[in-house]
Amino acid sequence: MSTGVTIAAAAASFGRDLDFDLARVRTLIEQARKSGADLLVLPDAALGGYLADLRDPDMDRLPPALEPDHELLGAVAAAAARMVVCVGYRESGDDGTSYNSAVCVSGDGVLGRHRKVHLPRGEEKVYTPGDSFDAFDTPVGRMGMLIDYDKTFPESARSLALDGAGIVACLSAWPTNISNRAPRMNQDRQSRLFDLYDRSRAAENQVVLASANQTGALGGMRFLGQAKVVGPGGDILARTWAKAGLAVATLDVETEIAAARRVLDHLNERRPDTYR
C-alpha cells in the first residue's frame, strides 16, 4: 500500500568554503526535517560551488575535487539520518579526471550516484562526461538523478523513467542567460527554459520531478533559484521562485502516477521502432 511522500527541493547559494557549505547543507536538512520531508534535493555543486565562469573557467580556482568516499559526503549522510538527501559536488576521478557528480544518501549510506552526461560549452574543459542514467531504490521509492544540462535532453529523464523511476531529482547550478542578460529575471530566456524543461520532463514521462538550483552569484555567474516540485501532469505543486528556500509538497507518488497514466500511458504507448 502506497503512502504520501513529502518532497523538498532547495534553492540556496554555495561557494568554495567547504565548511560553510556543509553547515548550510545541515541547516537545509534541519529545515526540511521540520517540514516533514522524506526527500530533500539540494543543488548541483552544493559542496564546493559551481564554476565561476563558463566562458573561460579559471583552472586555478576550480571547486575542490572530492573522492567518492570523502568524509564530507559521509557527514551529509549522517545529517540525513532517516531522510533521503541528494547533493552535488565535483568528484575526483582516476588519472586526474573529475566529474560533475551527484550522490543520493541516507543515514544508511549511499543509495545512488550520477555523473553528469551532457556538458555545456566551457564545462567540458573541467569535467569528463558520465555515460549512463540509472534509477535506484530508496526508502521513498525508485528514483534517479539528473544534473542541470542533462534535463535539456528528453532522453535523459526518459531513460530513468524506463528504468522504473517514479521520482526524478534534478540538481542544478543553472544561471541566467550569460550572453544576453535580461533586465528582469522573469524576462530571462534561461529562466523560461528552466521551468519549461522541469514541467516537460515530468509531464512527458508522467513522473514526479524535484528540481533544486543554486541562488546568488559566483564570479560571472548569476543563478536562477526557481526550485520546485512538479507532479506527473506537469503541474507545479510548490516553488521558491527566485528566492532562497525550500519548495515542499506532499503527495502519494504511486497513486498520482497511476492516475496520470490511467488513460494515456506515455511509456507503454511509445513506438520505438518508428523513431530515429
Report on the structure:
It is a single chain. The chain has 276 residues and is an alpha/beta fold. It has a single domain (5-269), classed as Nitrilase/N-carbamoyl-D-aminoacid amidohydrolase (4-Layer Sandwich), CATH 3.60.110. 22% of the residues lie in helices and 29% in strands. The chain contains five helices and 15 strands. The chain has helices at residues 18-34, 71-80, 154-162, 189-205, 253-260, and strands at residues 5-12, 39-41, 65-66, 84-92, 98-106, 109-115, 136-138, 141-147, 167-172, 208-214, 217-218, 221-222, 228-230, 236-239, 245-251. The strands form two sheets. Strands 1, 2, 3, 4, 5, 6, 7, 8, 9, 10, 13, 14 and 15 form a 13-stranded mixed β-sheet that branches. It is globular. The mean pLDDT is 95.
In CATH, the homologous superfamily goes by the name Carbon-nitrogen hydrolase
CATH class: Alpha Beta
- The assigned CATH architecture is 4-Layer Sandwich
Poorly predicted sequence stretches spanning 5 or more consecutive residues: none
> In one word, what is the shape?
globular
